[in-house]
Amino acid sequence: MPKMKTHKGTAKRIKITSTGKLTRRRAFGAHLLAKKSNGRKRRINTTAIVTGHTARNIKRALGI
Length: 64
Known about the structure:
Blueprint: H1 8-13, E1 15-16, E2 22-24, H2 38-45, E3 48-50, H3 52-62
Antiparallel strand pairs: 1-2, 2-3
C-alpha cells in the first residue's frame, strides 16, 4: 500500500494542540466588520475546537 497523502488545504487551516485536539479559526471575521458588535468580533477572533465526526474526518485527511 502506498503512503497516505496529507490533504494540504486542511493542513493549512487546522492546527493540532499538544494534547491532540484540533483548533480552527471562526468564520465571519474577514470583512464587513463595522456593523458587528465588539463582543461579536472578540468571539470571532478566538479559536474553536473541532469535535465529533468532523474531527475524525479531519484527522483522517491529515493522516493522524
